TrEMBL record:
Parts forming coiled coils: none
Record lineage: Eukaryota, Viridiplantae, Streptophyta, Embryophyta, Tracheophyta
Family: Belongs to the BetVI family.
UniProt xrefs under Pfam families: Bet_v_1
Stated name of the protein: Putative START-like domain-containing protein
GO biological process, one term: abscisic acid-activated signaling pathway
GO CC, any one term: cytoplasm
Ranges where the Bet v I/Major latex protein domain occurs: 28-152
PANTHER family (UniProt xref): BET V I_MAJOR LATEX PROTEIN DOMAIN-CONTAINING PROTEIN, OS08G0374000 PROTEIN-RELATED
Amino acid sequence: MAKETKAQRTVGVGVEALWRAMAKDIVSVMPKIMPDIVQSVEVIEGNGGLDSVLLFKLGRDPKSKRQQTEKIVELDESQYRFALQVLEGPALTLRDFSSLTTTFQLSAISEKETLVDMKVEYNTEKEETNMGEIAMQPVLSFVQLLEKLVLES
């Protein structure tokens, strides 16, 4: 049975700039904000839009074979709604998830402030009480790093 966890965060950047970094420029942004974790991202299916599949090459070592694939399962620019589903990789295997989908909903609060609603839907065989926290932690870090990047650019 699918479970979900939700979080909300207000960031000090405008909705357009955050949307661009999160949804439109994810291929170039991920290695910048997580250089120790993500070496590169490439679109291996599609055009970078809805239903595209992204290949994340992980680790600093260019010879590393660690990778993760994710699919853009929602991309609604008019609603600032973006969702990624992990197809395979460490986000599933290291944490014992059989499925993991993250949805971001951005809402403008003011010209320089955005509300980010985050939802992670996951399946796991583990019955640990903190699986929701484990699923949400990378998502919260991602939003924090995006905010920092946008503020610095």
